[in-house]
Amino acid sequence: MSSQNPVYSPLSLGETNISQQKHPSKKSTALALVGTLVIFSTVSLAIFGGFSNDDSDDNFGIAHVPYHKTLTTQNESIQLGNRFKNRYFEFKYEIVRGNYSHTNEDELAVKPFIVRNIERHSDGEPYDVYLHKIKPDEEGMIYWKFNLKATDKVVKTLVIRMIGINQTLNEGGKAEACLETFENCTEIPVDEDLIIDMPRADTLFLGVKLYKNIKIFRKAERCVRCSGLLSGFSVKAYWVSTQDHLLNISSTFHDDSGRVFALSPKTGENYAKFTYNFINNLYSHTEPDGSPVRLFDFNGLERVEDYTENTVFLRRKNPKEKGNIRWALNLRIDGKYVEKVVIGIIGIEEIANRGGTARACWNVLYNCIDIPIDGTFTLQNNVVDLSLDIELDEDIQIFRTKLDDEGSLENVSVEVYWRGQRENN
Fold first, then answer.
1. Domains 68-240 and 247-420 share a fold
2. Angle at alpha carbon of residue 327, lines to 321 and 330, rounded to 5°
3. Rounded Cα gap, residues 149 and 69, in angstroms
4. Rounded to a whole number, what is the distance in angstroms from the first to the last CA of the chain?
5. pLDDT tens string for the chain (425 positions)?
6. Which residue range or ranges hold the PAW domain (predicted)?
7. Bridge partner residues of 140 (DSSP)
8. Cys bridge to 136: 22, 174, 213, 389, which one at CB 3.0-4.6 A?
9. Strand 7-8 and strand 376-380: pairing?
10. 3-class DSSP state of 50
């Protein structure tokens, strides 16, 4: 664990093996110039921070003037949730704001694998952003590359949806998903999911060829049944383990949630430390009546003891639905005020790269900060109400520990220092 304690006060594109289909009425495809990828940003970074974005100008698609940018590429594959123990993972690209739902493993922005004669363009109307050909008389194409390899698990099902490819109909173009090579492709239907069961491949190529001078991924061609995706595409991967695991699963190991725990020091002292040990499900304190401490909120999560891997962890109960766990503490004591609070949570490394969030809020719900995954942090001034909330945005695992670990691991710790009440001047 880091010793830092922050303090807070209130391809070369010519080397690909993609088959190039020539449209009878069009010339062969030309290599498009590769420029700078663009960000489309209409709202504050506080709302969309953490997404992987195109490297575009902030005013792209906003000003009432035509605007366009050429797309850049990357050789590395996009990861589809194969780094951790995910059972479900969804990757999205939204054309209007240029948002990818995730970054690459190095945390740099995701880019297409192949771009030929394609640019991202706006006609000048607000939010009217799409992809089209730079040279209308030549074929264009854009493809993304995904990695389907993982240790001890395989992809059971891929569900692929593209929004705004209506103009590919009538030989305007073709949207397709290709497994392993560009010779093994399946066409993606318009306004429907493409479902691929047991793909048995290490690589997925996903893309569109433009034969005619058409526009793709336009928001105007939205799908009303597409779960909030306005334009672009989504790839959902459902993973299954290649090993038989002996599991003990419980979603009720924390009953009777909704309580706020009143933390106070021993008589004559001005310090108290509240801790939680996940492997043993033990707290440092009990309620005044001797009953166990209860969570303030516990939704959509389950505790899993994996006897095959000798581990215990917390994960989503339904891999497709979010879940959260929250503690709430009351630090009010008559005649005293809180000088500082030192908070640490360990075992939440997988929340990085948008796997989830861990936040501490004090006094009011909107007064919150992110909890670091590798150290402690300090709140100063008079904290009277404190909540610690961990939300799993993806199918990740937290508090993962060896079952035979006999150490007193403090997954959650809150140290509170009080002082005598300030005198009014």
1. yes
2. 150
3. 33
4. 43
5. 344 444 443 333 333 334 444 444 433 333 333 333 333 333 232 222 345 665 444 444 444 455 677 789 999 999 988 776 778 899 999 887 778 988 898 889 999 999 999 998 877 665 678 899 999 999 999 999 999 998 878 898 999 999 999 999 889 999 999 999 999 999 999 989 999 998 989 999 999 999 999 999 986 555 545 556 778 999 999 988 877 667 777 766 565 567 899 999 998 899 999 999 998 888 999 988 888 888 999 999 999 988 888 889 999 999 889 999 999 999 999 989 999 999 999 999 999 877 899 999 998 777 899 999 888 899 987 899 999 999 999 899 999 998 887 666 889 999 999 998 755 54
6. 47-218, 228-421
7. 210
8. 213
9. parallel
10. coil
Which CATH number describes the domain made up of 247-420? 2.60.120.1020
Query: What phi, psi does 420 have (nearest 5°)?
Result: -60, 155
Question: Which residue is it, tokens 């199918």?
Answer: 395
CB 151 within 8 A of CB 98: no
Give the sheet arrangement for strand 88-94, strand by strand.
52-53, 99-100, 88-94, 232-241, 153-163, 194-197
Q: How many CB atoms lie within 10 A of CB 82?
A: 20
Instruction: Output the pTM of the full model.
Output: 0.62
The conformational region for residue 170 under phi > 0 = left, psi -120 to 50 = alpha, else beta, is left
Query: Distance between CA 164 and CA 190 in Å, rounded?
Result: 8
Q: Which fold has domain 68-240?
A: Jelly Rolls (2.60.120)
